[in-house]
Amino acid sequence: MNANQPAGGIDPKVKLSLLWIFVLLNMAYADILSLMDSTSPIREIMAGAPMPAGGLLAGAIVMETAIVMVILSWVLSYKINRWVTLVIGALNILLVVRGGHGSYYVFFATVEVACILLIIWFAWKWKPTQE
Q1: Contact, 111 vs 30, CB < 8 A?
Q2: Which pLDDT score, from 0 to 100, does residue 1 have?
Q3: Phi-psi category of 84—alpha, beta or left, where left has phi over 0 and alpha has psi -120 to 50?
Q4: How many domains does the chain have?
Q5: Which secondary-structure segment (H or E) carries 116?
Q6: pLDDT number for residue 94
Q7: Does 37 map to a domain?
Q8: What is the span of the domain harbouring residue 77?
């Protein structure tokens, strides 16, 4: 049995990684639905409206933080993993709350924020059994 794995439970690194995958899939699908929303600012940009400077880069950075957490949750040591998870989780909540529009986005944002709060709670409560 893994030293960080509680008796009868899932290894915290695996749990965090799986939750980040869930968040990432929700983020991606919310963005896909935005492409179908005729009132979405992204549709205006696709129709030729000017893109805000750095807009694509900002979107890429937001998505990459969730993508990288899938891997970092597995490979970082307990102490670093815990703090990186707390910081990236809080950052992602701020970015999710500020982005998007429409009832579908509010639904996805609610699910994403709830899951990120769960990630933060798991990281905060995570205690190593040996290290």
Answers
A1: no
A2: 46
A3: alpha
A4: 1
A5: helix 103-125
A6: 93
A7: yes
A8: 12-125
Dist. CA 73–CA 49, nearest whole Å? 39
Which DSSP state fits 50? P
Task: Please state the φ and ψ torsions of residue 8, each to the nearest 5 degrees.
Answer: 75, 10
Q: Are 65 and 23 in contact (CB under 8 A)?
A: no
Cβ distance 114 to 36 under 8 Å?
Answer: no
pLDDT in tens, 43-54: 777 788 887 888
| 130 lies in some domain | no
Q: What is the dihedral of CA 42, 111, 127, 3, to 10 degrees?
A: -90
25-70 residue pLDDT tens = 999 999 889 888 888 877 777 788 887 888 888 888 888 999 999 9
Instruction: Give the DSSP letter of residue 100.
Output: -
Q: Which tokens go with 84?
A: 């990186």
Cα 24 to Cα 20: distance, rounded to the nearest angstrom: 6
What's the rounded Cα separation, in Å, for the pair 37 and 102? 9
Contact 99, 58 (CB under 8 A): no
pLDDT at 42: 78
Q: Specify the amino acid at residue 26.
A: N
